[in-house]
User: Fold these one by one.
Assistant:
Number 1:
Amino acid sequence: MKAGRPKQQYLPRRLHCLPPALLNNIMHRHNQFVQSQNLRVFVGTWNVNGGKHFRSVAHKHESVTDWLLDLAKSVKPDAVWGYRNPDYTDEQINKPIDVFAIGFEEIVDLTTSNIVAGSKPTANQRDWGLFLQRHLNRDVHERDSYILINSVQLVGICLFVFARARLATLFRDIASSSVKTGLGGAAGNKGGVAVRFQLVTLFG
């Protein structure tokens, strides 16, 4: 039988030089001073059809705010579209999202100049970031504000990560990357983007 992988522990570097016996004791007693917390994470994509269509192209009566903030409230348990976990109470449904990971498709037109530009930030990326932050903070008087953690763009695809302000100091090792796969890796008309981070409270 293979032994399971040990749980990853987070200790500040200044404690790494403690005697092994003391470190081992700290690790075995970590449940006494470590608390876990459940977070709500929203992950979704939105096709903006080559620009700044702040309202849905297919469903012109819907806006980004409807999608990000109000969709879960509007979907009924017996609806034929959308999804609402029947085991969730109204209180759970109405609980604010802690982290938003919002992806966009066709944020710019696939022109030759845009494809060559690759992962360079664009005005559309800036405008969408400001638009999202403004609308995510629509109900800021009722809860924490949202701040931008990171953003990355590759031609027409763009990823934004927002989080509640109270969590900002808990983010560690934030990084982003983009990979071109078009024309053997030379063009960004195809490819992917990613943002990674750790969300953890370290020992004081």
Note: The chain has a mean pLDDT of 75.
Number 2:
Amino acid sequence: MAPDYVLAKLYVAALQLRGVPARLDRIESRRAADGVRNVGPGVTQTSSIGHRAKLHAISTGLVDAVPEYTSQLLFAINPDAPILRATVRRDSANPDAEFDPVFAEMTRSLPQETRSLRPSRAERTMVIAVRNKDPHIDGIRTYSQLADRCERFSILIHAYPADVLEMEHWAELVNRHYRCTPKSLLTETTVTSGDDVVLTFASDPLLLSGDWRLLTDDLHSLAAAYIFPLVAKSAVDRPRQLIFDELSEKLTTTDVAELLRVEYRTPDQLDQFITNWLRAKGFSGREK
């Protein structure tokens, strides 16, 4: 289950419903490295190639738009950016404003051929969640409270196959902010009834079940990673930008989790689910 694939399908469907030609393209690592040019409004399909390969594909004209994530792309471009080390309070970051410091720094770091469009409120930030109604963990509400007792718990990194390497990378960064080491830190694609603490992305469908409670990141371990379209300046005109901006305005973290759940459980229904979602959000037919 690759979030880039699902979001790219959403981008393409939104454009097509408004009468704008678009297609879904797959970026292969070899093609991205070769810099093959593919003319037309293509959108990347996979997340497994990583942020740098997507950036290269946009810069060289292989595709016109890719889904990206603010702090995660900035880390890929400039891992030594001070804003990432200082960490931004999540309640102070405003995805609608150009003054969000992480988004602003990321935008300044982009190659000149690329452009970041309006970020959505939907997040792919790394989060920690604990199981509800577990007496051993019921009183824990914040990262610092977990850190004080983390040696008692086994923490699961919940990662779908396409996300394993990136998840483990971010888990390592989060762990640096802890004052202790958990009993164990394992990576699995499934969660069992014995798992009480998980590290995952905010858009993980697992969190839709109601069985999990997100902890408050009072340690400000990681800056928020808002979802946004990264585009080629030469390929995305004003009509396309307006559609992308409208989509960002309406997309939420819960929406992304729902899309990923459909893709994971019933992939043959994903296209219809996306179409229904877009129509419910006002994307039916051509914009007048």
Note: Residues 173 and 221 are 8 Å apart (CA to CA).
